[in-house]
Amino acid sequence: MHFPASKIIVNKRAAEQQCLSILQTCTTLLNLNQIHAQIFKLGLQDNQLVLTKFTSTSSDLNAIDYASSILFSPDAKTHLYDTFLYNTVIRAYAQTHQSKITAVDIYKTMVWNDVTPNKFTYPFVLKACAGVGRLRLGESVHGKVVKFGFDEDIHVLNTMVHMYCSCGGVENARVVFDEMPKSDSVSWSAMIGGYARMGKSTSAVELFREMQIAGVKPDEITMVSVLSACSDLGALELGKWVENYIEREKIPKSIELSNALIDMFTKCGDMDKALRLFKTLDHKTIVSWTSVIVGMAMHGRGLEAASLFEKMNLSGVPPDDVTFIGLLSACSHSGLVNEGQKYFDSMTSNFHIKPKIEHYGCMVDLFSRAGLVKEALDFVTKMPLDPNPIIWRTLTAACRLHGQLNLGETITKKLIEYEPLDQSNYVLLSNIYGKMSDWEKKKKIRDMMGEKGIKKIPGSTMIELDNKMYEFVSGDRTHDLDKEIHEMIDEMGWKMKMAGYVATTSEVLLDINEEDKEDALNRHSEKLAIAFALLKTPPGTRIRIVKNLRVCSDCHSATKFVSKIYNREIVVRDRNRFHHFRDGICSCKDFW
Prior knowledge:
GO terms for molecular function: RNA binding; zinc ion binding. The chain is mainly alpha-helical.
């Protein structure tokens, strides 16, 4: 029987509408499979509209691979697919966790088949490049963006800034940002967030200030990034200003923003303010609880951390592995050996969390800080995981501190064999020889470092004064107030000696006399920063500094004396924790 062409078209349209309608209500993979069969039965396997809807439905059901296997089968007519269909597949893969690179592969197929991308294609492709972190891949897509003329589209450029930041090309991102014909709050947020994630916190804060001058209103995402930068810098006054700005501009305070505020106050040294904010939260997430527990660990408030953990359990929020790292660290910094062992055992017995190497490291640190070197070594030998260099370095430091010098020497020599270019191993061994008073071996370590071109990481200290961050590096003489700073250090030195201070010179790596060793210690970055603060702030003002390394024994001792002599509270955040010095006493009780 012969049907008129018009009737065939009508039937095709009816079949198309039927497929689209049932795809709209599809909620299971079984239904999707049945619809797939129906599509072939109705001869719609090349219908762009139906295939696009089938693909988006598959994506909604987390079955994009199923749709892709059909769309890109060996006999599929991929050259006939339109831009919209390709975009749908690319977007679906770009939004997955494991298959982002497939989005780029589909894009390459699209270009290979001479299907022209549009301005909606590239945000998804660039997002996929960001997800896999491949800078060169992102640069090649950038070239295509220019070729196809989308290098002035704000949405494409915003995603490109994000891509470069995610791939480690923050300088490339800044070039794109600076050359954008127009920008919006998303552009600024992407660039500020990129700086914050890359640890370029000073640049993040500076750009945020430029954003205000430009009159662009930030959103909550921007503020989370700025607070992250404040946390990294230890810039408490700036963090307080940001909190006030959020209130003043009525920026919606989501749980993410509230958690960022808590984290900022925790890492900037105001733990009590962080707790007050935490208690005001109506809905406390695992991030909220973990932030304050980790904060308590940093401030050496182990019993309070344990109490919070128990309250967390009673509230019905189950802990995760990160929570336990904070909890075990809190026990370690407070000498709570029995409590730490109990919580470590409860990970598997009560919460079914398999300990990771970080948890084992916390336990080694717990025993080591408490002087239980034998128990720490026994624990390491019985671990089901191979100990990493961090664990061995922890043991070595414990050996040096508690007099097990021969064992520490043996372990550190093994570390140097395993990591011959890691400067911290040589510094550890040098410190052990210093404790042994074996200056010849100590000199050999210094010579060995010189021969291999290995340099000790210089200590640096940040201090925030009058809304500006100042950085001091050990031995630096380039500061505008260098003369006054060193005069203050001389004053601090003789006042401390009058009060009974004796310099700890055994950790000085250089082969020089005792007087020169004391001079080298006086040029440590935290002493420079404290001297600067004493010069620039009124008497009695609290001093807050942030150090990139663990505070050394001599600076810890000296800061106790300075706090008493000058009647100053001095808050020091080092690589591991906070030290609150007041009236000649440190909050760590010399347990750090």
